[in-house]
Design brief:
Elements: E1 2-4, H1 7-20, E2 30-35, H2 41-53, E3 56-61, H3 81-90, E4 95-97, H4 101-104, H5 122-126, H6 130-145, E5 149-153, H7 157-169, E6 175-179, H8 199-204, H9 206-221, H10 227-239, E7 244-254, H11 266-272, E8 275-284, E9 287-296
Parallel strand pairs: 1-4, 2-3, 2-5, 3-4, 5-6
Antiparallel strand pairs: 7-8, 8-9
Bound molecules: pantoate (PAF).
Pantoate binds at residues 34-36, 64, 67, 134, 137-138, 156, 159.
Amino acid sequence: MKIAATIAEARALIAALREERRGSAQGNAVGFVPTMGYLHEGHASLLRRSRAESGISVLSIFVNPIQFGPGEDLDRYPRSEKADLELAGREGVDVVFLPSVDEMYPEERKATVTVTGVTERLCGASRPGHFDGVATVVSKLFHIVKPDKAFFGAKDAQQVAVLQKMVTDLNMDVEIVPCPIVREEDGLALSSRNVYLSSEQRREALVLSRSLREAAVLIETDVSVTSRQITNQVTKAIETSPLAEIDYVELLTFPNLEPLVADRELSDLRQSGGSVILAVAVKFGTTRLIDNVIMKLKEAPLHV
Ligand code: PAF
């Protein structure tokens, strides 16, 4: 496994591997997993998928300052370079790109990638500028790594929708591959931020996956249930936790992330076989957790 600290090194290492593996049995397609580090089993599952589908596996670890708003957790975002590199080694990563902030943003930045529409609701509404930061850094990383496929976890479902729209609209030659949410045995979605939770907060946070699971069953089994009934049920369930402070509970079309209004209610979407996302963001103390379930209506949930 090679480690690149600069853009030039990353480009040279990946180009050399492309050349070396041309015509080889595993092929020389580049699979890419962009991360902010503090890697866990969710990231490992992305790396395994990348390894399985590509001859060359690239990981980036970069805590991107421009996707954090004022008062967010940039300064205390957890870091663990040594453990991250060990995990990357175990998962057969070929190149780790580990740049500094100065390497990625050497001078005042004048170019920003903005995706409209899908960024209007959910985290786009509660974290202004967040998705500009994500789209800008991912677009820079794509120009550096030049991947054939890039793998992202469905826990950040809005991020996946935003990046999908970015590569489509800007004709970027990379396939965005969404991968299922990885959960602890008790249902908590894996997140680097889970480390901030006290044991009591962690216990209470299970209300998120539980309420989403119950709502998914209702959507599947009650064909006349409305979006308002679903979001009310999830809100009430989360409110039973005294430690939970709800940011949003929303049921939207997926992947366009549009509200379900009268002419696009659950019942209409059922007929057209549309998909919906039920998404929540909830703070436990200073830790903001997100979770979601995406369902193709009439069919089994994609992940619960
Ligand atoms: O999902 C993340 O960890 C980040 O948003 C990403 C995609 C690595 C961009 O900084």
